[in-house]
Write a structure and sequence with these properties.
The protein has 3 domains: 105-110 and 126-410, Pectate Lyase C-like (3 Solenoid); 447-684, 3-Layer(aba) Sandwich (Rossmann fold), CATH 3.40.50; 689-749, Alpha-Beta Plaits (2-Layer Sandwich). It is built from 16 helices and 55 strands. Helix 11 packs parallel to helix 12 (626-641). The protein is elongated and about 110 Å long. Helices cover 20% and strands 32% of the residues. The protein has a 14-stranded parallel beta sheet with strand order 1-2-5-8-11-14-17-20-23-26-29-32-35-38, with helices on one face.
Length: 757
């Protein structure tokens, strides 16, 4: 018994942990270097490092907690790596690390981690070749760090973050820019959430890494958003892949990937939204894609011919130049485009839904001959906007034997957008999840433009003397085709400017460049803000109304509240906006039950949320009847008189006369003529026609009377047309009025064929 007690006494002091201490390092204190503090520290000690500049390299070989106070700087003087951590359980927080070496084969790095359980938090790494490198260092955390690489050619940069044989790593809420890639190799069970990757070569680059969660990240303006290879069991949810437009320009690329789940992501403005190469690679495997949004990409989804067993359901394909492409020889598509009686939403679907179950009664097929040819021979994209395109499609419709095998056959296409359930929250909800925030970018295409938290209270007086929009030498290319070829113009505050031109003249491309949803050459500023450099802030000044807006399956109030939450606009603004556009009585009506004119009013209401100073309208009245068009134009005119700057595309003379103060005539991607509305008809040699509706019983009498006065009316079953030239629009109306022939309605059109079909 005595021996046991003696042994207990011998061991007891060793079983107690040593008391941890806090050591302070500062340029004027007793400890002036971090190395001095580490040398005398014990495991578990905290070292406070106060503001100042400290020399690199720094070796952390003890399990200590280093806390930066007032962001002390560790400066490498452009030589070697800055910090190397060889001890476990280290915390490095609140430092600025800058000026590593620049030698690629030395892999000069900001922070190298070579031990487990290391946490890197709230650090700023500037002008470093490689950023953070976990090398055989599992169970680490990198959280809220900002990493900016060397400003050099992409191929000669280092990786912003690199994981190598490091399992159970968490990469959370970091910002990585001007680097090569975030490179992940042979590392499993990872969590990559809430990060922003921009202006890198690859945002994410994976190989041989399994069981990874990739959620809530923003991956934009890289050459490639994410390229994942030779890995299994990856979940990608609620991420935003936008404007990744390098040499290949994939938003997300999968090569030999198995067990992949891709749900609720936004792919917008990429060359290719999603690229699939031999994924899945295992014969028994399936990859699934649900609730994603593919919008304004050159191609939404591209597969190689042999790719199969990918399941697409409840995705939304909106205004991609090509929704789906198969690059290579033409074979039957073996992917699954509908499941359990539910397919996807396609904005160009022209079918119908007779039974009202939100499922189209006829299949959606992607079988355009020109698309099939360009998939196999990309050089043909040179002719994408030429008459050759229409000629080829006409030939295919006339000779069905020429029509290609469908790239997509969706037997259950959705009639309305499929918005993820996570976005449909009650009005009492305080905030939206990340996907809702990322969804804001695609709402640009749905008539919602702006940035959260910015209150645009502009008037003509406050902006007097500054151009609201400045476009200089704007160039936009689609392959070898110049859609915009050196366009320049300015728009003053409170001005209303019409973009006039035939289809293919460049009107829509111009508007999309103004919004920053297309990459371009040249420069655009919106109220002094550079669109290319700060697109989000510039877009906050814009409200956009498309030709035909798409809305979730909600009531008017719910839809407006949904978009208001995304734009962080107070709900108190909603009744005011509804009243302004004349929708107060429709507040609780389902959006699908609205007429075309009422839907455009709702699109206008959404565009007005946040009070942006600029409204862009892309042929916003094209699908409206005469009365609805008149009512909508009157609303826009009143907004212009109240100080809104208006830029709108049109090919209707009456819209120009009613709304524009200046006209830019576009031809071959340039401004060919700039004139006043009154000069437009003469300069272009256009004719104006007055379309007149009278009671059917008086139609013959009215025509005969006008013929007696020297007019040559042209009849159709519903109205007749009178050529009124450039002036004298009221003359035929006065003649009919004098004869007591009641005119039910009239409008001005640029062609007597307008409305016949």
């Amino acid at each position: 018994m005595g021996k046991l007690f003696l042994l207990f006494l011998l061991l007891w002091p060793r079983s107690l942990p040593e008391n941890t201490r806090t050591l302070v390092v500062s340029p004027t204190g007793s400890l002036t270097t971090i190395e001095e503090a580490i040398a005398i520290a014990r495991s578990g000690d905290t070292i406070e490092v106060h503001g100042g500049v400290y020399a690199a390299p720094l070796l952390i070989d003890k399990s200590v907690i280093l806390i930066g106070v007032d962001h002390p700087v560790i400066d490498g003087g452009n030589e070697g790596s800055l910090v190397v951590i060889t001890a476990p359980d280290v915390v490095l927080k609140g430092f600025t690390l800058r000026n590593s070496g620049s030698t690629i084969h030395h892999e000069d790095t900001g922070i190298i981690v070579q031990s487990p359980h290391v946490t890197l938090e709230d650090n700023v790494l500037e002008n470093v070749l490689f950023g953070i490198y976990f090398a055989n260092a599992p169970d680490g955390i990198a959280r809220r760090n900002t990493i900016q690489g060397l400003n050099r050619d992409e191929s000669s940069r280092g990786d912003g973050i690199r994981l190598w044989y490091s399992d159970n790593i968490q990469i959370i809420e970091n910002v990585i820019t001007t680097s090569r890639d975030m490179l992940v190799s042979y590392s499993n069970n990872l969590k990559i959430e809430g990060n922003t990757f921009h202006h890198n070569r690859y945002g994410l680059h994976f190989m041989y890494s399994n069981n990874v969660s990739i959620r809530h990240n923003t991956i934009e303006n890289n050459s490639v958003g994410a390229f994942l290879m030779y890995s299994q069991h990856i979940v990608l949810e609620d991420n935003r892949f936008s404007h990744n437009r390098g040499s290949s320009g994939y938003g997300l690329a999968l090569k030999d990937m198995d067990g992949v789940t891709v749900n609720g992501n936004v792919f917008v403005g990429n060359q290719v939204g999603l690229y699939l190469d031999n994924s899945p690679s295992l014969y028994e495997g399936y990859n699934t894609y649900r609730g994603n949004i593919f919008a304004y990409n050159d191609v939404g989804v591209v597969t190689l011919p042999s790719v199969e067993r990918n399941v697409f359901q409840k995705n939304n394909f909106l205004h991609n130049l090509e929704h789906v492409g198969i690059w290579g020889r033409e074979i039957e598509n073996r992917n699954i485009w509908f499941q359990d009686g539910v397919g996807n939403y396609w904005n160009d679907y022209v079918g119908y839904d007779q039974d009202g179950d939100n499922i189209g009664d006829t299949p959606y097929r992607a079988d355009r001959l020109f698309e099939s040819l360009t998939d196999r021979y990309p050089v043909l994209k040179l002719f994408e906007y030429s008459p050759a395109t229409q000629a080829i499609e006409f030939t295919a419709s006339a000779f069905p034997v020429l029509r290609p095998i469908p790239k997509v056959e969706d037997n259950a296409p959705l009639m309305t957008l499929s918005i993820p359930a996570s976005l449909k929250q009650s009005e009492t909800s305080v905030s939206l999840p990340f996907l809702a925030l990322s969804f804001l970018l695609i709402l640009l295409a749905l008539g919602v433009v702006g940035a959260a938290g910015i209150d645009w209270q502009f008037t003509k007086a406050s902006l007097r003397g500054n151009s609201m929009i400045v476009v200089n030498n704007l160039v936009k290319k689609y392959g070898q085709f110049n859609a915009l070829a050196g366009m320049s113009f300015t728009v003053q505050p409170g001005e209303s400017v019409a973009l006039w031109g035939i289809n293919g003249a460049g009107k829509t491309s111009t508007l999309r460049c103004l919004m920053g949803i297309l990459s371009f050459e040249g420069s655009i500023t919106i109220n002094g803000i550079d669109v290319a450099r700060n697109g989000k802030t510039a877009r906050a000044a814009i409200g956009y109304i498309p030709q035909e807006a798409a809305f979730p399956d909600l009531s008017v109030k719910e839809a407006l509240h949904f978009y208001a939450r995304l734009k962080k606009v107070s709900s108190k603004e909603l009744p005011v906006v509804l009243e302004k556009v004349g929708l107060t009585e429709q507040t609780y009506k389902p959006v699908w039950a609205l007429s075309g004119g009422m839907k455009q009013r709702l699109a206008l209401a959404i565009a007005l949320l946040g009070n942006p100073p600029i409204l862009l309208l892309d042929e916003a009245t094209a699908n409206l009847d005469t009365q609805a068009r008149h009512d909508f134009l009157n609303l826009v005119v009143s907004l212009n008189r109240a100080g809104k700057t208006i830029v709108f595309s049109t090919h209707r003379v009456d819209e120009v006369m009613a709304l524009a103060q200046r006209v830019l005539v576009l031809k071959d991607g340039q401004v060919s003529v700039e004139c006043s509305p009154g000069e437009l008809v003469d300069k272009l040699g256009l004719q104006r026609w007055l379309r007149i509706w009278v009671e059917p019983d008086h139609q013959s009498e009215a025509v005969h009377l006008l013929q007696q006065h020297g007019f040559t009316p042209v009849m159709n079953t519903r109205a007749f047309y009178v050529n009124v030239g450039t002036t004298g629009k009221m003359a035929p109306l006065r003649i009919l009025q004098a004869a007591q022939i009641t005119v039910n309605d009239f409008d001005v059109v640029e062609s007597k064929d307008d409305g016949l079909h």
